[in-house]
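Usage example:
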Amino acid sequence: MNTDQAPLGERVDLLVNMGPQHPSTHGVFRMVLSLEGERIIDCVPHIGYLHRGSERLCEGENYSQIITLFDRLDYISNINNEQCFVMAVEKLMGVQVPPRAEYVRVILSELNRIASHMLFYGTFAIDAGAMTPIMIGFRDRELIQALFESVTGARMMHNYLRIGGVKEDVPEWFKLDLGRLLDQLRAGFREAEDLLNGSDVFLERTMGVGILPAEAALDYGVTGPALRASGVGYDVRRAEPYSVYPELEFDIPVGKVGDCYDRYWVRMREVEQSLRIVEQCLERLPEGPIMGKAPRLIRPPKGEVYVRTENPRGELGVYLVSQGGSGYPYRVKIRGPSFCNLMALRQLLRGVYVADSVVILGSLDIVLGEVDR
Amino acid sequence: MSLLDIILVGIGAFILFNFIMGSVLVLILAERKVLGRLQQRLGPMRTGPWGSLQTVADAVKLLVKEDLRPQGSDVFIFYLAPLMLFVPGFLIWAALPFTRDLVLSNLGLGLLYIVAVSTLSIVGMVMAGWASNNKYSLLGSARSAAQLVSYEIPLVVTVLAVGLLAQSLNLVEIVERQVPVPYILIQPLGFLLFLIAALAETGRIPFDIPQAESEIVGGPFVEYSGIRWGIFFLAEYAAAGAMAFLGALLFLGGWSGPFSDSPLWLFLKATALVLLFFLIRAPLPRLRVDQLMAFAWKVAIPLSFLNLLLIASALFYGWPQWLLGAVNWLVLVAVVAAFSWRRERRLARLRGRYAA
Amino acid sequence: MAREPQTRAETSSSPLEPRVREALGQRLQELSYSFDEMVLRIPREEMVECCRLLKTTPGLDFKLLRCLSVVDYVDFMEVVYHLSSLSHPHKVTLKARLPAEDLRVPTVTTVWKGADWHEREGHDLFGVLFEGHPDLSPLLLYEGFEGYPGRKSYPMPEQRELYGE
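Running the assembly step on the lines above writes:
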């Protein structure tokens, strides 16, 4: 069946092949737009340009090596990905993680969430045509990256989490650095939000555009900020609390309408909440070991486990099947939040203008590394 | 016209052309520097002291770059299109006076000529979009045609209002009528409309819809490379500079200023306007096509006619200039108040959305 | 303070169990537990009906299809559906076994639209035919790709040599 063909009975002036080389598709993503004038009649998304067979590759790597593969899935929020996989193996093996390691994990993954949302508002503004917010976003993201570098030794592909804990303890100046960083982040974030909310054109471009009703969002399996923007307060950190989240105080921001502005708004509020979480973790960060009692050779027993965590983009799930006695997993299925969120795109793009298509795609905030795996 | 005249005009045109090319290079550098400062970065820093030779280096690079033409493009139109945009962009300058005497061609109907010539750039855009055999180009050229035609009307009507007030379409006379009160004080509404229309005509943010890099990746110019693309770029900045000069001449009193009349004043005023164009670019996103059209037809055009009507009635009933100015200011304040009220209402609605 | 390690001892019956048994009735072949997940095994022909029942039965409300995976056990394949409910704090795993020589299972895109790409991926990488799916064209692989790279039988020679297994 040829999916590039537009539905019959409607006038199609132009078939535009947007991507895979396009500045606003956030990577190698292609959508075939059927246009009637400036209006989109139908959109057929095509993915797979970045398919590296990560799931199959996992079957050939031992458990500690797979962490590096997870770094490369959603390359904007690496720690969050690592956490999901590491938690899956820990659950399978019954490894206990010491509290200090849990807190460090949560601090880093929340910082990563902030960094990811900073990149989001930057690229979202670029999609809408504004150049400046991304400069602010990148300036602040750079601070986070620098902190990551001082902790993990890498700016992006950290490979920092270990089954049973983390690779090494945080440096002694970590607390001080982080405290200062939080103030800078808060100020920079406010600056960016003022810049965007203060612009009538930005409001005009995002409000009431690309409305995703809650029912449809659930039907498509949309999760994360995109689902919460539609008014469903579903967050894995609350729905199925993991790590130290049950002990922390934070709110789940929920939108009302489900338009692009709501999706942007939810993410902006999430940055605030993440800052809150990091602050609390910093206060409580206990002393102690950073590695639990995990065997040197990781050979989980026979069994299967599905672990989900809240990624900046939504629910990241890992379905891990182990046959027992082997250092290699039998099957790893990765449920990428971007992959599922992207499915809603086709419905969202029907009937909007070409200019809105990039804004809507930007508001879903996909990362192709995770979509294509 | 004797041979000597022709030679003199030729020399004048040559000097003017070089002046424009030089100032366009400076303008591009200035824009990058200003934008950089606004976005907490430095802008170009590597080529020459503080990056001052960056645009020169860019121009040289564009000159020696391979000139590509996509397969299936319409050869003749493809090559003609940059010129169709470039030539009108420079023809405007021929009628722009720098002082009472320093003008290449002091036309009696200078304003009419400028408006007519600047409209020609649509043809170049549409030709480029059509000939490139690229769908983004086609979309871009359709958008630019719609946009330029729509904003031509408020531009022409506000310019006409100036001509009406000055009782002349000759630019030198218009400037001379603005001593001692520049027209910006008498018709601020007209100036604002002119500014908006000029932004739209030159396709600058928030009206860069025809190019819209994040949507249609550069519109009509997608397929152009090397010096042909450079010509488009030059023409765009030459047009922006011409609009700034025109604004300075029509509303800011041209070369007249304190101490003495000098082209320096004109340059200063035009530079201020150009800087304003750059500043507007930094914080604003891009409008959508339908919003742009709605603004043109529902706001800009009625207001420009209102402005024209005010001036016509002032002339008809013989209002003194201060009265006309006062009424015009009042209308401007009312318009700005209406917009801020609308904005407040929208923000209240937004706040209400998240109140619970 | 730290999270208690989850062990198999936790796999006691949950209050969800009778409700699921009631809703699915005869269709349920086997009910077991794996950590905190309840695993239901059902015949593949009944997949759509079971999903619909789990989604719409009041008190169950499995509105969200978390994940849809295909696992290749060489002799047979398994399609695994992870469902979860938003209104209740429960989740469930559905499984159906497909014999290796007959990899067909009805599509659940009629129940959740979100199954669309998951099923296309399963068709792409494992060659499972999701019957009734509106469009099973290649999703992750390019057009005309030979073989099913997700299957265990698909060779990965370089990697094996590299790590000496």
